[in-house]
Amino acid sequence: MITPINFTGIKNVGYARALTGSDNNPGTRTVLNMQLTDDDKKDLSKYKKLTSKHPDLENKINSNYLNIELETKNIDGFCLCRAKMNGNIIPSIAENIPILNFMSEITARIANFKEKDFKTDPDHHLMNEAKHGIFYNEPLDYFLDGTAGELDLLAGTGLTEKFDLYANDENIELSEEDEEKLFDFEDGILEVLHNPCYVHNGAQLTNSIMKYYYDSQLYS
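and the corresponding structure tokens:
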């Protein structure tokens, strides 16, 4: 199958949101993960120029990929927020303006994508860039069994608890068929996390949080 030409400079976009913390101090991790190209606005070249100045920011899974994460925590009624690029915390200080500008621009553009703008390679959700890239350098399993948080799309379904039981309980011996079902479940979730409609709605939320982080802290 011929991969469709992408005229946006951004492809293979995934979105995920995990619920973290506790009932008293809840938190969230909201992420956009994507591959950048030079098809339109030379996004990849801009990205490479940025990471050449800040080598620690390079995506270690695939240097053509960008992972943007916004983490929030509610502590005693106060909402705290921090931004990450490829797993690195980006403090909202003046010297980081070029990095934050780049993150904000990319996030805003995805939030304004139309369905036709989303281009995803066949079976991309099966690739390591998706499995370990959606939450940067963390296996998706950690968010399916609740180890690192619970995917918001699974909240209240009981599926997180079931996955944890069957994947991690040493007293349960799974048949090959059951193990295949666990793999299929993970693949199905990753497919949803790259669904254009789901990503579009998630990107709008991510963009709102990014604006809050950028505006309320950088210029406060």
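(Above: one complete record from the training split.) The first strand starts at residue 10 and ends at 21.
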